[in-house]
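Progress against Task 2.4 (sequence-to-structure conversion) is shown through the following example record, which the project officer requested during the mid-term review.
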Amino acid sequence: MPAIPSRFTRPRHLLPFPNQPPTLPPRRLAGGRQIQNRTKSTRIIRGGDLGGRLKRGEASERPADSSSSSSQLAMATQAALFAGFSQLAAQPARDRAGTGAPARVGVAAIGGARAGGVKAGGAGWAAAAAPRGVRCRASLIEPDGGRLVDLVAPEEGGRRAALRREAASLPHRLRLGRVDKEWLHVLSEGWANPLQGFMREHEFLQALHFNAIRGADGRMVNMSVPIVLSLGDAQRRAIQADGATRVALVDNRDRPIAVLSDIEIYKHNKEERIARTWGTTAPGLPYVEEAITNAGDWLIGGDLEVIEPIKYNDGLDHYRLSPAQLREEFTRRNADAVFAFQLRNPVHNGHALLMTDTRRRLLEMGYKNPVLLLHPLGGFTKADDVPLSWRMKQHEKVFSYDHSILPIVSINWLLTTL
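Structure tokens generated for the chain above:
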């Protein structure tokens, strides 16, 4: 594998906190690697090792600071699914001074969730077991940035109609390809919270070199894959010559679907982007040829406002729940724990074992109504993968509605981070 050129190493002048060395999450979590938390670190359990470790009673890990004699509960992963509650921060919890007060626990997760880049496939991260006698309570995790992003123009007050008229009148239009439209979908519903649109240069460089971006409140948010929009040199010259600050985004039929405002245009350093994202510039990487190599030499970022919710009209749109809809569904079902499994294939026995065993252990931990969030991947998949429509038919037959939710994720880079 070719080495990353030295010019792509992390420059110190791009540190999110210039006078402080970075303490950011690693790009890729391997089985057993320690991930950094603000106070303590906790060990992640590789899904493939879960069965044997649970049988041996080794699934629970203690926080780095284990001097206290009070019982300690290690949370494994809090669902890093870009659903607004996506911050992957393993949070050790303990009862208070051994008094038996309930430990506060967020959302347990299994399957393909990980920090910043979400790992596809069944061998993922599984929730750790709790010590006996520990009672748990749950609440939804706060969205990254503190507020769930919704970039779709509201119908109330005529804003949606006004935006549609404005987009039709703008002189500069950028046509979105299939991948660009899927990224627009991701941004518009808050899956990439707290991004307000396609990345500006400082966000692009932070994601590229630090796998995170700094929000308006100063907090770091995992973001290991850049979400950007490219354009060609002729388009760049025309926009800059007119001094335009707003451009319309249109679909393949030239219909306006969004407006990008307060725009910023900067150079698309493709080789650096590939090297920093995949760790190599070797040819044959999935997604690269379609979305990077043949893309424009410039990137455009700005604030995004989408005219109406993105639909694909493929008979599966009713599965595509937004983060806000998922949160409402969790509340409606009175779920006191949500465990997530993300995959691109039909469910097999290994998947089923992880899911049923995790539900059983959550019940043993004291949760009354744990709900499975199954995340079948849409968007960019391998040529020999089972088509999404058939996977959804299989999932419908296999899973109980009472104990599971089946939203589709159309995040097109998920399969390329393996």
